[in-house]
Specification:
The chain is an all-alpha fold and 114 residues long. The protein has six helices and no strands. The protein has helices at 3-16, 21-34, 39-55, 62-74, 79-92, 97-109. Helix 1 runs antiparallel to helix 2 (21-34), helix 2 (21-34) packs antiparallel against helix 3 and helix 4 (62-74) runs parallel beside helix 6. The relative contact order is 0.11.
Amino acid sequence: GHLSEAEALYVSAAKSRPWHAAAWVALAQLRTRKLGKSAEEGRTLFQTAELELKKAGKKPSAHVYTAWASLEYHKAHDVRRARELYQAALKQDKKCSAAYLQLGVMEANNANWE
């Protein structure tokens, strides 16, 4: 139920600490999964997160890349772009289990055994 309230809180969190990756991920997921927004809107939020992290002098976030990859795969049906983003996540964090798991599931679902 309280999706508009949740959205307002996520927006506030992203505005108060624009370099906080989890706020952007939560906002993008809420909008694209629960509020019916497009993959393009989610993509814009992930790109904003990436930019804000860079402006703050922070490393790119494996969390952002993994969530973004999931959007590209599940909502935009772009396996190539999803693969690139999962690999970007693993470049940032070689132990990112979520990226390994989701990449493996995606490749198995697409019968990519190479």
